[in-house]
Amino acid sequence: MSSNLLAGKKGIIFGALNKESIAWKVAESAHAHGATFTLTNAPIAMRMGEINELAAATGSEVIPADATSLEDLENLFTKSQEILGGKLDFVLHSIGMSVNVRKGKHYTDLNYDWLEKGWDVSAVSFHKVIQTAYKQDAMNEWGSILALTYMAAQRTFPDYNDMADNKAYLESIARSFGYHYGVKRKVRINTISQSPTMTTAGSGVKGFDGFISYAEKMSPLGNATAQECADYCIMMFSDLTKKVTMQNLFHDGGFSNVGVSNLVMDQFMGNKE
Predict the structure, then answer these.
(1) Least crowded by CB within 10 Å, which of 6, 30, 65, 251?
(2) What is 10-268's CATH topology?
(3) What is the DSSP-derived secondary structure letter of residue 223?
(4) Tens digit of pLDDT for each residue in 78-99?
(5) For residue 262, what pLDDT is reported?
(6) Mean pLDDT of 16-32
(7) Distance from chain centroid for Cα 85
(8) Strand 248-251 relative to strand 88-93, pairing
(9) pLDDT attached to residue 268
(10) Domain extents for the chain?
């Protein structure tokens, strides 16, 4: 971790809740690679999490912000630039929530008020984050904005529920805003489609243990861990990927390109070895 890929770079990291969070791992790795950044999460999530411990370990300041509130986001970007001493080079959006999933509502019987709330938190907030940075001209040229997603945006995973629709919308925002921000300021916007990862958010999905086991058997390289996802994020924040934008980047050990694996077929055929 001594390559200092992010030496001198400044950013904002959303969504570090606890040590299992991908955002937490990204913050640790970004710090190790020489970056400085602010940390943010919704006030309610901060009460549940341990973000102040992470802030102390990385020399970062915490700025509470509801990512669905434009007022909070404007304050976040303004204060972050003041604290860090200039414009930003990277932003990580690691936010997702479905009230319907939490409350056990089936996809065929959604509560639409809950649907709208989850959509705003999980997807529209990404647009609000980018739009705030865009209007404030808060990003340096060749900056990098990332959001974390999951391949339920492309394929059906029944128990992923309305989160699948949220992720599809999230990925579309990266493409659409990626064009405008690229033309305007040469800022890159991408999504990383990560393997199922046992985080606090992921564990709330019904049958998530089964998701992880199945993906492990399907993926020729096995599931990508939270730390490996953090490493990928560091590369995407760095100058090594300056011409990568508007992409949905699969980081899943090959799962997304496999139709069936021998391990899965062995189970169907009764061979448990």
Answers:
(1) 251
(2) Rossmann fold (3.40.50)
(3) P
(4) 999 999 999 999 999 999 999 9
(5) 87
(6) 96
(7) 25
(8) unpaired
(9) 77
(10) 10-268
Cα 68 from Cα 132, distance rounded (Å): 11
Structure tokens at 54: 């992470």
Say which residues have a Cβ less than 8 Å from residue 224's Cβ, sequence separation at least 6.
194, 195, 197, 232, 251, 252, 253
Residue with tokens 């974390």: 148
DSSP per residue over 80-103, as a string? HHHHHTS-EEEEEE-----HHHHT
Nearest to 230 by CA among 148, 160, 132, 137: 148
pLDDT band per the 50, 70, 90 thresholds, residue 231: very high
In the block, residue with structure tokens 């046992």: 198
Mean of the per-residue pLDDT values of the chain: 93
Alpha helices in the chain (DSSP H): 22-32, 43-48, 51-58, 70-84, 99-102, 112-119, 125-136, 163-185, 208-218, 226-237, 262-268
Nearest-angstrom CA–CA distance, 89 and 237: 8
Cα 268 to its chain centre, rounded Å, is 34
Please report which helix (H) or strand (E) contains residue 190, including its range.
Answer: strand 188-194
**Residue with the two structure tokens 């990927």:** 241
